[in-house]
Input
Amino acid sequence: MLKKALEGILSEKESEELFSAFDQVGDIIVIRIPDSLLSKKKIIGETILERVSTAKSVFYQSSDVEGDFRTRSLELVAGMDRTETEYKEYGCRFAVDVEKVFFSPRLSTERERIANLVQDGEIVVNMFGGVGMFSILIAKNKKCTVYNIDINAIASKLCEKNINLNKLVGEVVCINGDAAKIIKERLENKGDRTLMLLPERSDEFLESAILATRNNGIIHYYSHIHADKKQDAPKLSEQHYLELTKVKSEILNSKIVRAVGPRYYQTVVDVKITK
Output
């Protein structure tokens, strides 16, 4: 759609270089633009704003996601200059700041999968819970308790706001702080299920996830893996986890969550541990 909309504005060569996909979060659109087209970022943003009726702002992502807070720098290229919006998913409402917290609309299918796996009565430890997307979707229909931990104070405040925005059957407990320290101090052997939604640093926090999870509990281990063949990525992730772990583990499932680069994938391995 974007390339078609820019016919006559961009040359054929420029159109080929353009990233045609973009993320829409509520009424905010975030785009990535190759260096060769940065001089035309305003016209690209204005064209998107004109063509997408539900959008009020278009931002250019000017840095990668980085740092402990996993945030990115954004530059307004069209529309209203604000980064907070409301996002809706599977009947839930979420206040999100697309610049000050980590958030990806591309994880919706995985959020639904995890929410469907959780059973009534479970205690879930969400180690890197952000604004509460996974946690709230889990607690929406299940009589469970979810500990939503995040080191970013803004994400934790938005999580508290999101708890109040939604009617939940279960309970979400929002905790601001470092996941490893919180688990050691308060949540050792608490979790029937532990989520590790920080794939780029999963190896670093695996011991904390094991500490948080009780005997016969489940860990959802997310990681980034390189694979020459896409179909090999889940099995390579399983192998990596088994080489790394120090506890007896039964692989329940593994899958690709999404592609994150050429021959590079975010994967999840679901494991049942025995202590």
User: Anything to note?
Assistant: The radius of gyration is 20 Å. The first strand starts at residue 23 and ends at 25. The chain has a mean pLDDT of 95. Residues 60 and 158 are 23 Å apart (CA to CA).
